[in-house]
Design brief:
Blueprint (H helix, E strand, L loop, with lengths): L2 H27 L22 E8 L2 E8 L4 E8 L2 E4 L9 E2 L12 E5 L3 E7 L5 E7 L4 H9 L2
Parallel strand pairs: 5-8
Antiparallel strand pairs: 1-2, 2-3, 3-4, 6-7, 7-8
């Protein structure tokens, strides 16, 4: 084997080892932004309740709300626009998210983890240890509320 071939192979081996070792470091340095992230960097935590982290985004008139636990694990996410709610299929409690569009949304008397002028998300512990989340319109007028919730 010539010295030139040995040098090329050695350089390739050193480059491969460097890339392999740098991969995890580069991955950790990438931004953690957007829906589905444990600790989104492109929005603020707007939670109203200790133990939860709530993040919101607006895009094309649609509000996206994501609820994480204290460790950053995604629990539920919902999209809403003009009083319509769409549960997103993400998070460990996605099956426990209720909206006004559900055939028979559970009535929960939980604590508000998020609220703004149009949306409220509550979390209600159940006797079996599960947590039920309810995303519903924020409404101060009972007549208007019944119209939005009943879809009339």
């Amino acid at each position: 084997m010539s010295r030139k071939g040995f040098a090329v192979r050695s350089a390739l081996l050193v480059g491969l080892v460097t890339i392999t070792l740098a991969g995890p470091v580069l991955a950790q340095q990438q931004t953690n932004a957007g829906l589905g992230s444990a600790w989104p960097t492109d929005t603020q935590d707007v939670s109203r309740m200790p133990g939860y982290h709530v993040y919101t985004w607006m895009k094309s008139g649609v509000k996206y709300i994501q609820v994480n636990d204290y460790s950053g694990n995604v629990l539920v996410a919902v999209a809403t626009a003009e009083g319509v709610f769409l549960p997103l299929p993400m998070g460990s409690d996605a099956k426990n998210l209720r909206t006004p569009e559900d055939a028979s949304p559970d009535s929960t008397t939980g604590a508000a983890v998020y609220q703004d002028d149009s949306v409220q998300v509550t979390a209600a512990p159940q006797s079996d240890g599960a947590m039920i989340f309810l995303a519903a319109p924020t409404c101060t007028n009972p007549i208007e509320c019944s119209v939005h919730i009943n879809g009339n």
